[in-house]
């Protein structure tokens, strides 16, 4: 019986570790993309407001084209010509273009810019910044975003992201469930380990959510907390299991 319980704990550790090894690089890379985008393009005149509609693909494969999108609206009381400056990374540097879009009163237009592996910098990232100039009563708006690019033939980026997400969260949840099964009756030290596993699962999930929405500051905090949990609580407890 003791041997069986020990096997459950070992299998739980293996599954949980697999989930961490998949989930941490996933959310760290996603947040790194937004972090780099924020600083990559250098200083510019500050915008009045953020441009929340700017979106980059989460993950792309090197053979897959993608599109950066943003929506602009004219909620003023007259037709407007709105000037937009778009900067996208390209072969280690960046391209920049200015375009003007005519928007009628109340009109919303979705804009799109194509990206490929030619736009990759730092080996794995595509970075973008969009600046919408102020017009009439509309304030200027700007934002940055980033995409992680990986060389995985045969899959699309969104497919790879979903697979990694399911594998990570599924493995971690299965891992601490098996650990709990193999640790009954639960002693105080085992309870500390279980709590650390559950908290680490939640932190990695929060880091992935931060990466999806470009909240790289929160993502960096999650990365730091994850490392602390791994090396102080989980690592110490597992060694004594």
Give the structure's gist in a few sentences.
The protein has 241 residues and is α+β, with helices and mostly antiparallel strands. It has 4 helices and 9 strands; from the N terminus they run αβββββββββααα. The mean pLDDT is 88.
Explain what the structure shows.
- There is one protein chain.
- The model has no long low-confidence stretch (mean pLDDT 88).
- It contains four helices and nine strands, in the order αβββββββββααα.
- The protein starts with a helix and ends with a helix.
- With 241 residues, the chain is an alpha+beta fold.
- Helix content is 48%, strand content 26%.
- Helix 1 packs antiparallel against helix 2, helix 1 packs antiparallel against helix 4 and helix 3 runs antiparallel to helix 4.
- The longest helix is centred in the N-terminal third of the chain and has 39 residues.
- The strands form two sheets. Strands 1, 2, 4, 5, 7, 8 and 9 form a seven-stranded mixed beta sheet that branches. The protein has a two-stranded antiparallel ribbon with strand order 3-6.
- It has two domains: 117 residues; 116 residues, Immunoglobulins (Immunoglobulin-like, Sandwich).
């Amino acid at each position: 019986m003791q041997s069986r319980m020990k096997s459950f704990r070992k299998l739980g550790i293996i599954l949980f570790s697999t989930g961490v090894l998949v989930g941490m690089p996933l959310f760290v890379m996603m947040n790194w993309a937004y972090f780099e985008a924020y600083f990559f393009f250098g200083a510019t005149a500050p915008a009045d407001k953020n441009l929340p509609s700017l979106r980059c693909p989460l993950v792309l494969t090197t053979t897959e084209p993608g599109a950066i999108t943003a929506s602009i609206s004219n909620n003023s009381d007259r037709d407007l010509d709105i000037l937009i400056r778009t900067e996208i990374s390209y072969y280690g540097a960046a391209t920049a273009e200015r375009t003007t879009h005519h928007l009628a009163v109340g009109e919303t237009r979705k804009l799109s810019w194509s990206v490929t592996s030619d736009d990759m910098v730092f080996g794995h990232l595509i970075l973008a910044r969009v600046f919408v100039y102020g017009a009439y009563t509309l304030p200027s708006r700007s934002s940055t975003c980033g995409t992680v690019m990986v060389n995985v033939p045969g899959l699309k980026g969104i497919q790879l992201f979903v697979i990694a997400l399911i594998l990570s969260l599924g493995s971690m949840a299965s891992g601490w469930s098996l650990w709990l099964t193999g640790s009954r009756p639960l002693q105080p030290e085992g309870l500390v380990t279980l709590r650390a596993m559950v908290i680490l699962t939640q932190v990695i999930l929060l880091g992935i959510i931060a990466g999806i929405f470009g909240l790289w500051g929160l993502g960096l905090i999650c990365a730091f907390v994850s490392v602390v949990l791994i090396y102080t609580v989980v690592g110490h407890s597992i060694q004594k299991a």
